[in-house]
Amino acid sequence: MTRVTIHEAKTNLSRLIEEVEKGGEVVISRRDKPVARLVPIEQARPERKPGRFAGQFDIGPEFFEPLPEEELRLWEGRDD
């Protein structure tokens, strides 16, 4: 972990980002008090792969038919 002042962070931002990209951590301090931390962004979810579920289930033609009026009202939040 690297500790730098705000001035050092502004002056060396590119170098500090390179350090973070390699898995490091940078703490930025003001008057010897830590106020911010630079850390790598973790990927929240795995990459999506098109066609991953191909052939595992069927969607019938009724899926594409319009909804009945009563159900459509519920989806739209109408209380006619």
From TrEMBL:
Classification via Pfam families: PhdYeFM_antitox (PF02604)
InterPro entries hit by this protein: Antitoxin_Phd/YefM, phD-YefM_TA_antitoxins, YefM-like_sf
Function: Antitoxin component of a type II toxin-antitoxin (TA) system.
Native species: Bosea caraganae
Name recorded for this polypeptide: Antitoxin
Family: Belongs to the phD/YefM antitoxin family.
